[in-house]
Design goal:
With about 240 residues, the protein is α/β, with parallel strands linked by helices. About 25% of the residues lie in helices and about 25% in strands. The chain has 2 domains: about 110 residues, Nucleotidyltransferase, domain 5 (2-Layer Sandwich), CATH 3.30.420.40; about 90 residues, Nucleotidyltransferase, domain 5 (2-Layer Sandwich). A hairpin with a 2-residue loop joins strand 2 and strand 3.
């Protein structure tokens, strides 16, 4: 039975959980936090206390691997790496969009062919999207998508082999930007709109069991875009 620490910091949610054999036994999370770095270790402490475990008793550390916020992903990855180094634990990285597809799968019908379109808000009318089948296998790599009136057609072109009458399920905070009038009869929005450490549990258990561990020294999260850094307009030295 694997004892896993789960950390989700890809978006505005700061979420920590502990899973035993793929089942979440402790969960702490805060939404709309602007200080994930300060809160993350406190949430970890609360989770291990609730689960009745110490960090040393854990078997591995799982972190949401992106795409997502550059700063938040750095915070989650740095914290996970620090624990792995200190306690000699394996590092597991779970693609954020796949974790969202897993969460949507728990609410979807089982008798239909389904494609999960996981979407994260990328500001303005753009989202980051990846498409998964019923087994959560990725059918296209994560990529930007503009939610214009033709956005369903853009997704059809990405996976043209989808069976007839496939149900398309949009999941994640990016799906909230979809105008309802553009949804056709074979499209629906999942009730899952936010990321959570709980969504990582089963996927992390599978990766741990199969030995799909990351190289802790060299692992970097998938940012999708470089950080938005603007150069200061202030003079380095006052004019003489």
């Amino acid at each position: 039975m694997a004892r896993l620490l789960l950390m989700e910091t890809a978006t505005e949610v700061c979420s920590v959980g502990i899973a035993l054999d793929g089942e979440v036994v402790a969960l702490q999370e805060e939404t709309n936090t602007v200080n994930c770095a300060a809160r993350l270790t406190m949430l970890i402490e609360a989770c291990v206390r609730t689960a009745g475990l110490s960090l040393r008793q854990l078997d591995a550390i799982a972190v949401s691997g992106g795409p997502g916020s550059y700063t938040s992903l750095r915070v989650g990855t740095s914290t996970a790496k620090g624990i792995c180094y200190a306690l000699d634990k394996p590092l597991l990285a779970i693609p954020t969009l796949q974790a969202l597809a897993y969460a949507a799968q728990q609410h979807a019908p089982t008798h239909l062919a389904i494609r999960y379109a996981s979407m994260l808000d990328a500001r303005r009318q753009e989202v980051w999207v990846a498409i998964f089948d019923e087994t959560l296998q990725a059918l296209c790599p994560p990529q930007p998508l503009v939610l214009d009136e033709q956005w369903p057609q853009h997704l059809y072109h990405l996976v043209p082999e989808a069976p007839p009458n496939t149900l398309w399920v949009c999941v994640g905070n990016g799906s909230e930007k979809i105008p309802s009038k553009t949804l056709h009869s074979l499209w629906e929005k999942s009730p899952i709109t936010t990321c959570s450490a709980a969504h990582l549990a089963r996927l992390a258990e599978q990766r741990y069991s199969s030995g799909a561990w990351e190289n802790t020294a060299y692992y970097e999260p998938f940012y999708m875009k470089p950080p938005n850094i603007t150069a200061s307009k202030k003079a380095l030295l006052p004019d003489q």
